[in-house]
Design goal:
The structure holds two protein chains of two kinds. By secondary structure, chain A is an all-alpha fold. Chain A has one domain. Chain A is built from 13 helices and no strands. In chain A, helix 4 crosses helix 9, helix 9 packs antiparallel against helix 12 and helix 9 packs parallel to helix 13. Chain A is globular, with a radius of gyration of 19 Å. The mean pLDDT of chain A is 85. Chain B folds into two domains: 218 residues, 3-Layer(aba) Sandwich (Rossmann fold); 69 residues, Alpha-Beta Plaits. The longest helix of chain B is centred in the C-terminal third of the chain and has 16 residues. In chain B, strands 6-7-8-3-9-10 form a six-stranded mixed sheet, with helices on both faces. Chain B has a four-stranded antiparallel sheet with strand order 2-1-4-5. In chain B, strands 12-13-11-14 form a four-stranded antiparallel sheet, covered by helices on one side. By secondary structure, chain B is of the alpha/beta class. The chains are: A mainly alpha, B alpha/beta. Chains A and B meet through helix 1 and helix 6 of A and helix 2, strand 6 and helix 3 of B.
Chain lengths: 250, 315
């Protein structure tokens, strides 16, 4: 456990030591801010019955961040270490493969959540000018952040997996982007079909991230969805561990 | 300290290390010598526990590097080829991070980092960012990292590659200073370097260990065939005649040098030192002798020499 914290600290600080970390945060802040402007304009013209969080999420900006930023966050994790050779110094210390993967994944998730913090500020501004406590309540905001965390974890585990496959950061980013987009668009295959027609449609509907995130944004945290995200995340982390181990049987 | 038996490492379709066995005793400094691609780095990677062997076993301090990986790794300080470091970290911070990874406690790692920084001459650069250090300093950071957990065995893969002569000397001094307290395994392709630092040399070529001996013994094996270069001012014909009639000379080659001097490359018969013979010859004939050197063996000569018996056996 001590080793895990040491690794986690180093991984997290690596984001802030390099310029990339700040570039990512700046990019996310820009997208959130842009979203905010559009959102305020819409709010100024006509009234709405939607919860604010749902409106925030209902634009494509959210998915833009998820699909574009997570590969950039994760591409460095394994690929860079393999390219520079530090992977060798790391793996010849008495640390386990699982610890390494867990620390890298956790650091990426924490960084991802930090990048999302400006959204809270946007909400606070709305709250301030709406002068109404009912506009935003802890439940919907919490639900939304739970959604951001769960979808983010899933995409970051995809990214970890992609990064462990190669020693080239660009390749890693492209693989995880391709995996992310495929996973994301899988849900849309179901939209044409009636939801309860056959098991294929039901399964595809299960992959509808768009719909699931919608629930989170309304403040609905469904156990089925949580289990879905958590288990997929673990699946990809497991695959990452296997790839890291693979140097043993290659 | 190290017991390697029948180690074979095969990459997809290529055998990098082919059934080698050797042992290293505690406190020895052993050089792994060979050209690029001989399997030195692969051997070291297996020893450090980074990759498993295809066949054979490797034990360090009695622990199998694959089955008792953690125990073995605690006893090994490994510096890979090209000395990879995290360029964005500061020296002290990096060493502390490494010490913690290797299982040292907070207090203990602080004390050890201070010690190894003194030992490696890093005290003044502790707060500098690694990426901005000179190559010599980076190499010392790598060494300090290998030493930080007081390992019994230190494995250094080409520790002096790419350094300037001054830096090479200081790194060599450092490594020599480790003798006795630690067992050291160094790989290099520079023969004089291995001679200078090691008690024993293992010569690797094409995935096999061709010879394992002390530098002196290897030299003795080689001395018989070392070439002598002599520059003598004399008529070329007279020189050729003289060499032909000397029973000690096996082969010779006379080429024109500057002015009236001729450059003679002479191969002596097994075990003979030609130099006094040449001096006497020059004195008797009243020739001016301005250079007399024994050509040092390049590594290549050694490989040729060591592989020779095999070739003859095949013929």
């Amino acid at each position: 456990m001590r080793v895990f914290w040491t690794l986690l600290r180093r991984e997290l600080s690596a984001f802030f030591f390099s310029l990339t970390g700040y570039v990512i945060i700046a990019a996310v802040t820009l997208i959130i801010g842009y979203n905010f402007v559009v959102f305020v304009q819409k709010l100024g013209s006509d009234p709405t019955a939607m919860p604010l969080t749902e409106m925030f999420y209902n634009s494509f900006y959210f998915w833009l961040i998820l699909l574009l930023i997570t590969p950039v966050i994760t591409m460095r994790l394994f690929a860079l270490e393999k390219a520079t050779g530090t992977f060798e110094t790391l793996m010849t210390t008495p640390v386990g493969d699982v610890q390494v993967v867990a620390a890298k994944f956790s650091a990426a998730v924490i960084f991802y959540m930090i990048a999302w913090l400006p959204l809270l500020a946007c909400m606070a501004i709305i709250q301030h000018f709406a002068r109404q406590n009912s506009v935003l309540d802890a439940g919907t905001v919490g639900g939304m952040y739970a959604g951001i965390l769960l979808t983010g974890s899933l995409f970051i585990s995809l990214g970890c997996f992609a990064s462990s496959l190669t020693r080239n950061q660009m390749t890693a980013a492209m693989i995880s982007f391709a995996l992310g987009v495929s996973l994301f668009s899988l849900g849309f295959l179901a939209t044409g079909r009636p939801a309860d027609a056959d098991w294929q449609s039901q399964m595809l509907a299960g992959f509808n991230l768009f719909e699931q995130m919608h629930n989170f944004a309304r403040g609905v945290v469904d156990t089925q969805t949580v289990i879905f995200f958590v288990s997929l995340t673990f699946l990809f982390l497991f695959l990452t561990v296997r790839v890291v181990e693979s140097r043993r049987w290659k | 300290m190290i017991e390697v038996s029948n180690l074979t490492k095969r990459y997809a379709g290529r055998t990098a290390v082919d059934n080698i066995s050797f042992t290293v005793a505690r406190g020895e400094i052993v050089g792994l010598l060979g050209p690029n691609g001989a399997g030195k780095s692969t051997t070291m990677r297996v020893l450090s526990g980074f990759m498993p062997a295809t066949r054979g076993t490797v034990k360090v301090a009695g622990f199998d590097v694959f089955h008792d990986a953690d125990e073995a790794r605690r006893r090994i300080g490994y510096m890979p080829e090209n000395n990879p470091l995290y360029p964005e970290m500061r020296v002290r911070e990096y060493l502390k991070f490494r010490a913690r990874l290797k299982g040292l406690g907070w207090r203990q790692s602080r004390a050890r980092v201070t010690t190894v920084m003194e030992q490696c001459g890093l005290t003044d650069v502790g707060r500098r960012v690694i990426g901005q250090l000179s190559k010599g300093y980076k190499q010392r950071v790598g060494l300090a990292d290998a030493l930080v957990h007081e390992p019994d065995l230190i494995i250094l893969d080409e520790p002096t590659i790419g350094l300037d002569p001054q830096q090479i000397r200081s790194v060599r001094e450092l490594i020599k200073g480790l003798a006795g307290k630690h067992t050291v395994l160094i790989s290099t392709h520079i023969l004089p370097e291995a001679e200078m630092m090691c008690n024993r040399m293992l010569i690797m070529f094409d995935g096999r260990v061709l010879a394992a001996d002390t530098p002196e013994n290897l030299h003795r094996r080689m001395a018989g065939s070392s070439q002598i270069i002599a520059e003598i001012a004399a008529p070329a014909e007279a020189l050729r005649m003289a060499w032909e009639h000397l029973p000690e000379v096996e082969q010779f080659d006379v080429s024109a040098g500057e002015g009236e001097y001729f450059r003679c490359a002479l191969t002596p018969r097994e075990g003979v030192d030609l130099r006094p013979v040449i001096f006497n010859l020059a004195r008797e004939n009243g020739w001016a002798l301005r250079e007399l050197t024994r050509r040092r063996h390049s590594l290549e000569d050694i490989y040729i020499q060591v592989t020779k018996p095999d070739v003859e056996a095949v013929e």
